Amino acid sequence: NGMKSSAVVIEKEEGFTPAVKTKSDSWKGKTPQELNDIVKEFGIVGLGGATFPANVKYMVPKGEKAEYLIINAVECEPYLSADHRVMLEKAAEIIEGLRIIRKIVGPEKIAIGIEINKPDAIEIMRRQAEAENFELEVVPLKLKYPQGDEKQLIKAVTGREVPSGGLPLAVGCVVSNVGTVNAVYEAVVLGKPLYERTVSVTGLGVKNPGNFLVRVGTPISKLLEACGGTIDRPAKVVVGGPMMGFSIYDLDTPVTKGTSGILVLTDKEAGSGARTACLSCGKCVSVCPMGLNPTKMFKFVDHGDYDGAMATDLMDCKECGCCAFSCPANIPLVQGMRLGKKMARKKKVS
User: Fold this and answer.
1) In this predicted structure, what is the pLDDT of residue 350?
2) Are strands 210-215 and 196-202 parallel, antiparallel or unpaired?
3) What b/e sequence results for 280-289 when a residue is b if at least 16 CB atoms lie within 10 Å of its CB, and e otherwise?
4) Which of 206, 182, 196, 177 lies closest to 254 in space, CA to CA?
5) What's the structural domain count of the chain?
6) pLDDT tens digits along 313-347
7) CA distance 231 to 269
8) In whole angstroms, what is the distance from residue 147 CA to residue 240 CA?
9) Which domain holds residue 250?
10) Quick one: average pLDDT of 260-283?
11) Fewer CB within a 10 Å sphere, N or C end of the chain?
C-alpha cells in the first residue's frame, strides 16, 4: 500500500550452524503452558501469511473451550503449492505436531481441510493418521477461493459462522495452518527456531518453478536464480499470490516468515486495463464472501470519510481481492480497503 515501515538488518559474523537437537519425545512430560512457552520462544507464527503469533492463538482463555482444532491445508491463493508440498513430505511430523497442539489447546475434535484437487495429500494424511492411531477428520473441500480464509474454512468444515468482528473461538474453533503445525513440531521436538519456511516460486515468467525451503532474510533475487532466472523481463514480481500479494520493485527484498510464494508474472498474466468510473454493476457485491458492499466502502475511503467506511463494516473485509478481480472498471478496491483500515486505526490512536 506504499506505506513505509521500519526494518532490521542482521549481519552474521561467522558461518551459519543451526542448533538443532536430536529428536526427542521429552515434550510429553511438559505442561500445556510449558509447551506454549516453547512455541513463543522459538518464534512460531501463522505461516498462512498473517504471521499472527501461534502461542497467542493457542492460548484459550479460562472459561472458554475449543471444541474444534481445524488445520488449514487449503492453499491461500491460486498458483501457490507450499502447503501441498509440506503435507506430501512431512505427514508424520504434522501428526506429531498435532499431538503437541492438542495438548496445548485441548480440543474435542481435530479436522484438516484439504482441497479436492490434492487427492495425494488427502490420502497420505488419512493413511498417516490411521497408521499412528490418531483421530483426525480429513475433510475434502471444494476448490473455491477464498476458502483458505479461516472464517470461510470454519464454515466449510463445521457449518458454523463466525460473527462480525468475532474470533474463531466465538464458535468454539481454533485454526492453525498446516505449515505452522510442522513448525511447532520442529520447535518442540527438534529445538529448531522458525528461521526457514517453504516458499512457492511460480508464474509463467520464471524458468523452473518449484517449492523451496528458504531461510528468512534470503533476497528474492537468490530464489529466482535458483529457478534458473526469469523468462525475458517479467511484467511484475509479486510477494504472495495474485489476489492478495504485493508487487515489489526491488529484488533484494527479503523472504519473511509470511512469504508463502513469489509470483513472477508475464504481461499476459498481469495485464489490466485503465481505471474508469464505477459502473454500479454490483459484481463486487455479488462475489464478496463476507457479504459486504465493496464499492460503497471504497467511496467512503476515496473521499477520506474513514468513519463512514468503518460504519459499513470495513474491518470485516478480508482483502481477498475477489471484488477487484471482478471489477470491470479496474478500480483498486483492495488497496482502498487497506488504506481505509490503516487510516481508521491511525485516527483512533490519535
Assistant:
1) 66
2) antiparallel
3) eeebbeebbb
4) 196
5) 3
6) 999 999 999 999 999 999 999 999 999 999 988 87
7) 13
8) 16
9) 196-270
10) 90
11) C
- Sheet with 246-248, strands from edge to edge, namely 210-215, 196-202, 261-265, 236-239, 246-248
Q: What are the two backbone dihedrals, phi and then psi, of residue 178, each rounded to the nearest 5 degrees? A: -65, -35
Q: Tell me the pTM.
A: 0.91
- For residue 136, what pLDDT is reported? 97
Q: What is the DSSP letter of 167?
A: -
Tell me, yes or no, whether 10 lies in a domain.
Answer: no
Q: How does DSSP assign 248-259, residue by residue?
A: ES-TTPBP-TT-
Residues 141 and 254 in one domain: no
210-215 and 246-248 as β-strands: parallel, antiparallel, unpaired? Answer: unpaired
Q: Phi, psi at residue 235, to the nearest 5°?
A: -70, -30
Residue 200 is predicted with a pLDDT of 97
pLDDT in tens, 193-247: 999 999 999 999 999 999 999 999 999 999 999 999 998 888 999 999 999 998 9
The residue type of 205 is: G
Q: How many CB atoms lie within 10 A of CB 127?
A: 12
Tell which residue, 8, 19, 25, 334, has the closest CA to residue 193. Answer: 19
What's the sign of the alpha-carbon dihedral 163, 167, 168, 171? negative
